């Protein structure tokens, strides 16, 4: 029955990786994190240079 535990562990690891990838993609598309800091030092992208 060792094979049952082994395949369960492999499936759990794959599911964990897929859920992590979906979570990261969700947070990057919502504008949370990922990007260069703006003038105030808060995270965010697309900061414009001063005119």
Topology, please?
Elements: H1 2-29
Written account of the structure:
This protein is an all-alpha fold and 51 residues long. It has a domain at 1-29. It is 55% helix and 0% strand. The protein is built from one helix and no strands. The chain has one helix at 2-29. The longest helix has 28 residues, at 2-29. It is rod-shaped. The relative contact order is 0.10. The model has no long low-confidence stretch (mean pLDDT 79).
Nutshell version of this structure?
This protein is an all-alpha fold and 51 residues long. It contains one helix and no strands. The model has no long low-confidence stretch (mean pLDDT 79).
Defining key terms:
single chain, 51 residues, mainly alpha, rod-shaped
Shape: rod-shaped
What structural category arises from helix and sheet content?
mainly alpha
Q: Average pLDDT, to the nearest integer? A: 79
Q: Which spans have pLDDT < 50 for at least 5 consecutive residues?
A: none
Number of helices: 1
């Amino acid at each position: 029955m060792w094979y049952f535990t082994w395949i369960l562990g492999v499936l759990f690891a794959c599911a964990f990786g897929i859920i992590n990838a979906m979570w990261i993609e969700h947070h990057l598309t919502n504008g949370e994190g990922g990007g260069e800091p703006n003038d105030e030092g808060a995270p965010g992208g697309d900061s414009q240079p001063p005119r």
